[in-house]
Amino acid sequence: METRFTTAPESYDGFGTRTLCRVEMPKRGPRGVYAVWYREVEIDPEYLDWQRVRYASGLHACLTNAELVMLHPLCHRCGVAACPDADAPECLPIEGRV
Q1: What are phi and psi for residue 56, nearest 5 degrees?
Q2: Calpha distance 35→43 (Å, rounded)
Q3: Contact 76, 92 (CB under 8 A)
Q4: Which of 89, 86, 78 is nearest to 21 (CA)?
Q5: What angle do CA 39, 41, 50 make, to 5 degrees?
Q6: 28-46 per-residue burial string, b: 16 or more CB within 10 A, e: under 16
Q7: Which pLDDT tens digit goes with each residue over 21-79?
Q8: Cα separations (Å) of 51 from 5, 18, 60?
Q9: What single DSSP character describes residue 84?
């Protein structure tokens, strides 16, 4: 399974996807720092290209961990955007997360 981060709502999810958690990332804008929410989504590699296009159809991001960290340099997780565990303050666990 592949892991990606998206701003898309779950209604954009298709074949072979599962939401792992929500991740809040800091972003600096003209009026200061604000939060951007991403969903960490597990995607079956067979459907990854289709899913990326589906997210893009709604102008939503579909980022790898490295791309997410590059876009959010204020990340305080030392370059690891993926949720370390369900109790992490940066992650709101989704029911049923393993």
Answers
A1: -65, -30
A2: 24
A3: no
A4: 86
A5: 115
A6: eeeeeeeeeebbbbebeee
A7: 998 887 777 887 788 889 999 999 999 999 999 999 999 999 998 888 788 766 544 44
A8: 12, 12, 11
A9: S
